[in-house]
């Protein structure tokens, strides 16, 4: 008896490759979109963490700090000296100047930015501090 070779035929392999190709064409764009959203979220979280760090540093230095936001750039100034400069790839800022006093109070109270064509805003002062300041 002649031994018979067991394996896959060319047609079977082509059918499997076609199924895998269709699955990748459906899943690929979703994966790319998710990756882009993750990059935007990462930039936003880095930006908000940086604002927290600036607030902490102003409090520990007992100094007023100015934060300038323009385009995709953030600059932190103490007097005329530039303390930090950073560019965010996925965030855009309208022209804003935020002042942080030595007690950790921001003026104005809110920061605005645009991410993925969606405008965002974040209050900077806790509500209790903002209410006390507004009462004065």
Q: How would you describe the overall organization of this protein?
A:
The protein has helices at 10-61, 127-135, and strands at residues 65-71, 73-78, 81-87, 91-100, 106-107, 110-115, 118-123. It has one domain (10-135): 3-Layer(bab) Sandwich (minor pseudopilin epsh fold). The protein starts with 9 loop residues before the first helix and ends with a helix. Strands 1, 2, 3, 4, 5, 6 and 7 form a seven-stranded antiparallel β-sheet that branches. The chain is rod-shaped. It has 136 residues and is an alpha+beta fold. A hairpin with a 5-residue loop joins strand 4 (91-100) and strand 5 (106-107).
Biggest pleated-sheet summary: 7 strands, antiparallel
CATH hierarchy, class: Alpha Beta
Query: If you compute it from the alpha carbons, what radius of gyration comes out, rounded to the nearest whole angstrom?
Result: 26 Å
> Which blocks of ≥5 consecutive residues have pLDDT under 50?
none
Mean pLDDT, as a whole number? 88
What is the helix fraction of residues, given as a range? 40-55%
Query: How many individual domains?
Result: 1
Can you name the CATH architecture?
A: 3-Layer(bab) Sandwich
What structural class is derived from the secondary structure elements?
alpha+beta
- CATH topology value: minor pseudopilin epsh fold
**String of helices and strands:** HEEEEEEEH
- Gross morphology is rod-shaped
* Strand count: 7
First CA to last CA: what distance?
A: 102 Å
Question: How many helices does DSSP assign?
Answer: 2
Oligomer: single chain
How much β-strand is present in the residues?
A: 25-35%
């Amino acid at each position: 008896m002649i031994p018979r070779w067991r394996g896959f035929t060319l047609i079977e392999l082509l059918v499997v490759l076609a199924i895998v190709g269709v699955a990748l064409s459906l899943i690929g764009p979703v994966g790319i979109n998710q990756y882009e959203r993750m990059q935007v979220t990462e930039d936003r979280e880095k930006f908000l963490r940086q604002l927290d760090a600036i607030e902490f540093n102003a409090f520990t230095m007992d100094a007023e700090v100015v934060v300038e936001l323009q385009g995709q750039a953030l600059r932190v100034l103490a007097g005329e000296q530039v303390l930090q400069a950073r560019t965010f790839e996925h965030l855009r800022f309208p022209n804003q100047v935020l002042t942080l006093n030595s007690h950790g109070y921001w003026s104005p109270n809110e920061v605005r930015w645009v991410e993925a064509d969606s405008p965002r805003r974040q209050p900077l002062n806790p509500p209790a501090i903002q209410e006390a300041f507004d009462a004065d």
